[in-house]
Specification:
Shape: globular
CATH architecture: Beta Barrel
CATH class: Mainly Beta
Distance between the termini: 22 Å
Largest sheet: 8 strands, antiparallel, barrel
Number of domains: 1
Structural class: alpha+beta
CATH superfamily: Hypothetical Protein Pfu-838710-001
Length: 171
């Protein structure tokens, strides 16, 4: 399972400097555009996402919310034509639910993937940090992530378990 926690940042540069001082490994910087689809009639809590990175690498992702906020069942595959994929989804009784666009700086440290995000759309969503770990032990994964956040000076009362789409939509 993918376990994630995130926090809104007041000062992105302070956090980036702290991440670098922890000897994290910088992986990449990329502009991501996510077009998120929901089924018209489904009781199952899942989304399909078309993610385009720097307008050239594209993926289709299935993300199903588990009984625990911040924990997802996820499957992903590369696609060559996001516009055709979009048309297929729309014809298959899915609708465009949300569009998110951001600049992502990605780092790794130990078992963590650390993403520092600056949002373009929605315009006033600001800067965020998202830390994720892949684990079968959800609570243990969350404890590790919380401890990492504390090393950055970000404490539990600032952490959000919901994903960006649910935060943006207020659900």
């Amino acid at each position: 399972m993918e376990v994630e926690l995130r926090a809104k940042l007041d000062d992105i540069n302070i956090v980036l400097n702290k991440i670098k001082k922890l000897n994290s490994k910088f992986k990449y910087e990329v502009q991501q555009k996510d077009v998120i689809f929901k089924p018209l009639n489904s009781k199952k809590k899942f989304i399909l996402r078309i993610r385009s990175e720097d307008k050239k690498d594209h993926k289709l992702t299935y993300k199903e919310l588990t009984d625990t906020d911040g924990v997802w069942k996820e499957f992903e595959t590369k696609i060559s034509d996001p516009e055709q994929t979009r048309k297929i989804l729309l014809e298959s009784k899915f609708y465009e639910w949300l569009i998110i666009e951001k600049i992502r700086k990605c780092f790794t440290l130990n078992d963590f993937e650390i993403n520092v995000d600056t949002f373009i759309q929605p315009k006033d969503f600001g800067n965020w940090i998202e830390v994720e770990v892949i684990t079968d032990h959800i609570e243990n994964g969350r404890k590790k992530i919380r401890k990492f956040f504390e090393s950055l000076g970000i404490y539990s009362n600032s952490l959000v378990e919901k994903g960006y789409p649910r935060i943006i939509r207020g659900i």
